[in-house]
Amino acid sequence: TPGRMPGLSQVDSTGERVYLRPRGKSGGHGVGWSEITPYKFTTCAGWDEKPVSIADPDGTEIDAKFASDEEGDLKIILAPILRFSDFPSDPRIQDFLSLANFIEGFGPELVGAPIQDEDVVNSYTDERGGLEYYNYMLKSHWLISATVYQRRVYIMAIHATPLQWRRSFSKLQKMAASFSVLVPA
């Protein structure tokens, strides 16, 4: 079925896998959504895709979920920007919200609780494939990377237990930094 199309590659010689969102996948959104621009990220062996549905208790805007017993959990959230404001053109993340306001606004949906300034260990912006990304590390063992493209917010949120965080922090950071929307040339 379209919501269950696999996009995770086999493990390569370095122990990594690439997830490339398949065209036509509906994720947890059901039918009626416009075509979603594919995104990709790199993960390690041991991460598996988990089913999502429009009735997912974590939210209706979850496009994909992954989990590793050793390293943590990951979810990709796709939210239509019109849910928040009516923009006349194709905005970028910096047109939508500031670095500080973005995490405060999306925090409850991403981590299940409000996020205050003191909860953010680190935040920064970077560019990938022509898009600006907002990146956050939270005290509660979350890594978040987000951008906006074609009136849709793309968010990767990775969570780990304290033990998983200590053991796998560099791998989790690499995963978050690899998240990118594949903007056509």
Structure explained in plain terms:
There is one protein chain. The chain is α+β, with helices and mostly antiparallel strands and about 180 residues long. The chain has a single domain (about 15-180), classed as Protein Transport Mog1p, Chain A, CATH 3.40.1000.10. The chain has three helices and ten strands. It has helices at about 95, 100-110, 160-180; strands spanning about 15-20, 40-45, 50, 60-70, 70-80, 120-130, 130-140, 140-150, 150-160, 180. The strands form two sheets. A seven-stranded antiparallel sheet has the order 3-4-5-9-8-7-6, with helices on both faces. Strands 1-2-10 form a three-stranded antiparallel sheet. The radius of gyration is 16 Å and the shape is globular. About 35% of the residues are buried. One of its GO terms (molecular function) is calcium ion binding.
Helical residues, percent: 10-25%
Mean pLDDT: 87
Largest sheet, if any?
7 strands, antiparallel
Strand order of the largest sheet: 3-4-5-9-8-7-6
Shape: globular
The CATH class, by name, is Alpha Beta
- Our measurement of the CA-to-CA distance between the termini, rounded to an integer number of angstroms, reads 30 Å
Number of distinct beta strands? 10
Give the domain tally.
1
The CATH architecture designation is: 3-Layer(aba) Sandwich
Q: How many separate helices?
A: 3
Q: What is the H level of CATH, i.e. the homologous superfamily?
A: Mog1/PsbP, alpha/beta/alpha sandwich
Report the order of strands and helices.
EEEEEHHEEEEHE
Class inferred from helices and paired strands: alpha+beta
Low-confidence stretches: none
